[in-house]
Amino acid sequence: MDQLPALQVMLPLVMAPLVVIVRHPKWSWALATITSFLACWVSWLLLQQVMDGSVIRYAIGGWEAPTGIEFYIDRANAGVALLVSGLSSLVLVYAYHSIQRTVDKSKHYLFYAGWLLCLTGLIGMVITGDAFNVFVFLEISSLSTYMLIAFGSDRRALVASYRYLVLGSVGASFILIGIGFLYAATGTLNMVDLAVRIPDSESPRAVLVAFSFLTVGLMIKAAVFPLHGWLLNAYHHAPIAVTAFLAGTATKVSLYILMRMFFSIFGDDYSFGLMLLNWVLLPAAIASFLIMSLVAIYQTDLRRMLAYSSVAQIGYILAGISLATQQGLTAAVVHMFNHGMVKATLFMSVGCILYRVGNTHIPSLDRLMSRMPFTVVAFIIAGLGLVGVPLTVGFVSKFTLISALLEQGWWPAAVMILVSSVMATAYIGRVIYLMLFREARGSTVTSHGYREVPILMLVPMYVLLALGLYFGIFGSQTLSLAEGAASTLLGGYQ
Question: Which end of the chain has fewer CB atoms within 10 angstroms, the N or the C?
C-alpha cells in the first residue's frame, strides 16, 4: 500500500515496452486493458485514503523533497487521476473492434504502447509534486498523443497530428520557460516550496514572467479559446477511440494543472487580485461557449460538431475558475468530471455509427433508431447530459455554475450560459430529430447500417452512460468530491 503512488505511474510505463515486445494484436490489447484497469484500481485506493482531507507525499527513491522528487496526492488530484484511468480502461475495452477498422493489425502493438505512454504522462502530470516533472510527463503524454492521432485512417490525420505537434510544442516551450523563471526566482522546483517562497521572492519580475508564460502555455494545452486551434482537426481525424479518450481526459488534466498553479502555487490573491486574471478568463470563457456553440450548429459532421462543443464546454470550466470562489471552483471541478463522462460517451456512440454506417455525416443518420437502437439511445441520453437536462450530470454542473455566478452578482454571464445551452439544444436536437423521425434516403445509407455494433463496444459505452445517469440523479456525491477538491486547491499545499 505504501508504494501505490509509484505503482500508479510505473504500471503503464513498464507495460508499454512489454506490449512492443509481445507484438500480437490481441495480447497487446489485453495487456494494455488489464494495465489500465489496474491503474484505475490503484487510483481508487488512493482516493479513498485522501477523502478525509489527508495528503500522501511519496518520496521517489527515498530522497525527501525538496532535494528529491515526490508524488503529492490529495483530494484535488486523486479524483482527476481516477477520471483519467477510469476512462482509459472503458475506452480500451471499446477500442478492440473499433481499432481493427482503423489501424493495420501489424501496428496494433505500437498503438497500444502509445496509449499506455499517454496514460503514464497524464497520470504523472496529475500527481507529481515537482514543477519540472509536470513538463516531463507533459511531453510523454504529448509525444504519444501525436502518434495516436496519426493512426487515423485518413491522411488528414497526419496533418492534424503535425499541427498539434507544432502548437503543442509552442505550449510546452512556454511552460518550460515559465518553470525556468520560477526556479530562477525561488531556487526550487518543488511545488510545496514554490508556494512558500513565491510571496517572499526577491525577483517579482521573474515571478510575473513565469506566471505569464505558464498561463499561456497551459491554456494552449487545455484548448482554451482562442488558443484551441489544434483540437478541432485532432478530434475529427484521430481514431474515434483516441478522440473519446482525449476528449474526456487530456484537456481536463491541463485545466487541473492550471487550477493548481493559480490557486495553490501562486495563490488566488496573486492570480486574481494582483494580476486581475478574472478579467481575462471570464471574457474568454463567455466567447468560448457562445461562439463555439454557434459554430457547432452549422456543422455537417458529428465528430466536428462535438469537437466545437468540447471547446464550448471548456469555457464553462474556465468561467468557474474565473470566479476564484469556493462555489465557482466547485462548479469547475464537477464539470471537469461530468463533461469527461458525457463527451467520452458521445464520441463512443459516434464511433459505433462510424463502425456500421461508414461515415459520421449528419445527413446519413435518417431514422437510425430503427437500425441501431442501443447506439442511438446512448447518444440521446448523453446528448441531453451535454445540454444540461435535469437528472443528468450536465444539469448538476451547470446549475452549480449559474448559482456561483449569481452569488457574485454576475447575472449577465449566467444568462449567457443559458443562451449557450439553448444553442446546444439546437445542434443536439437536430441530430436526435434525424435519428428518430426523418425518413431515410436510400442513397445516404449503406448496407452496413442495419445492425448493432459488437457487444464489446456497447458494454463500456453503457457502463459510462449508467455512471453519468447515476451521478446526475445522485449529484451530491460528485459535488461532495468537487467541494473537497475546491477547498484543497484554495487552501494551498500542506
Answer: N
Structure-block grid coordinates of residue 242:
483516441
Instruction: Report the share of the chain in percent with pLDDT over 90.
Output: 39
All cell numbers assigned to 330: 466547485
Domain count, the chain: 1
Enclosing domain of residue 401: 276-494
How far is Cα 354 from Cα 361, in angstroms, rounded to an integer?
9
3-state class (DSSP) for residue 202: coil
Per DSSP, what are the bridge partners of residue 361?
Answer: 301
In a domain, 101, yes or no: no
H helices of 358-410, in order, are: 373-387, 393-407
Half-sphere exposure of 262 (CA within 13 A, CB side): 29
409 CB neighbour count, 10 Å cutoff: 9
**In whole angstroms, what is the distance from residue 289 CA to residue 295 CA?**
10
At 271-300, the pLDDT tens digits run: 887 777 888 888 889 999 899 999 999 888
Strands 70-73 and 56-59: antiparallel
- Residue 124: all three cell numbers together: 504523472
State how far the Cα of 318 lies from the Cα of 332, in Å rounded to an integer.
7
- Closest by CA position to 348, among listed 324, 383, 314: 383
Residue 430 lies inside a defined structural domain of this protein:
yes
Q: Which residue has the cell 454557434?
A: 294
Question: Which has the closest alpha carbon to 44: 92, 80, 93, 68?
Answer: 80
The answer as to whether 407 is a domain residue is yes
Grade residue 447 by pLDDT with cuts at 50, 70 and 90. Answer: very low
CA proximity to 218, closest of 274, 184, 244, 256? 256
Asked if residues 130 and 46 have their Cβ atoms less than 8 Å apart, the reply is no
Question: pLDDT tens for residues 389-429?
Answer: 888 888 888 899 999 999 888 888 889 999 999 999 998 98
Please tell me the least confidently modeled range out of 53-57, 341-345, 446-450. 446-450
Structural domain contains residue 447: yes
Left (φ > 0), alpha (ψ -120 to 50) or beta: where does 173 sit?
alpha
